[in-house]
Design a protein that fits this description.
Blueprint lengths: L2 H14 L16 E6 L4 H8 L7 E6 L10 H11 L5 E7 L9 H10 L4 H9 L4 H5 L5 H13 L10 E6 L6 E5 L1 H8 L5
Parallel strand pairs: 1-2, 1-3, 3-4
Antiparallel strand pairs: 4-5
EC number: 4.2.1.1
Family: Belongs to the beta-class carbonic anhydrase family.
Pfam families: Pro_CA
């Protein structure tokens, strides 16, 4: 049986047994938070448990490295929608140690793409469209700097209010220990005009 076949067989049983009932919740996050984290498989269950996030508590967005590469891309749009339409109040950018995006070089990805049949012509079309493939496919040097950068993209976005706390954290994928790189409450407080 194919992987899809086994998923669909399991799903049929899941629905028939009403195993979905413990997961029912509303579309609004109970803890009023949106989390951008990495798609790393080690974080799938570890991160929610380490942050005490239960089903329905948070909007969780995942991508490679928890990186926001463009202020007007789909990640940023999702964060904006979570804040304005889904009642989230805080943003958490959570990277992790040992991330596959750390030190990733575009050349390595492109080499593998070519081995899988991607042609030189396809790469030339990207260049003709103004895509900087090296920048698009490169990772970061230090995870702490990366989460700070992504938090800053959110914090300084013209559609994000200045009073939204944007936190930058790094999680250990072995133990779940969280390290705060930037405390969004402190940054919001420091940005407030002093009252005299």
């Amino acid at each position: 049986m194919s992987l899809l076949g086994s998923i669909l067989t399991y799903n049929q049983s899941f629905v028939e047994k009403k195993a979905y009932k413990p997961f029912q919740t509303s579309k609004f996050p109970d803890q009023k938070m949106v989390v951008l984290t990495c798609m790393d498989t080690r974080l799938s269950q570890l991160l929610p448990h380490a942050m005490n996030i239960k089903n329905g508590d948070a909007k969780i967005i995942k991508n490679a490295g928890a990186v926001i590469t463009h202020p007007y891309g789909s990640i940023m749009r999702s964060i904006i929608v979570a804040l304005y339409e889904l009642k989230a109040k805080e943003v958490y950018i959570v990277g992790h140690h040992g991330c596959g995006m750390a030190g990733l070089q575009a050349e390595s990805v492109l080499e593998k793409a070519k081995k899988h049949g991607v042609s030189e012509e396809a790469l030339e079309r990207l260049l003709a469209q103004g895509i900087d493939v090296n920048q698009f496919l490169s990772g970061f040097d230090k995870v702490e700097d990366s989460v700070k950068h992504s938090a800053n993209v959110v914090r300084t976005h013209p559609l994000i209010p200045h009073d939204v706390p944007v936190h930058a954290l790094v999680i250990c994928p072995k133990t779940g220990k969280l390290d705060v790189v930037e405390n969004g409450y402190d940054i919001v407080q420091a940005a407030k005009p002093s009252q005299q």
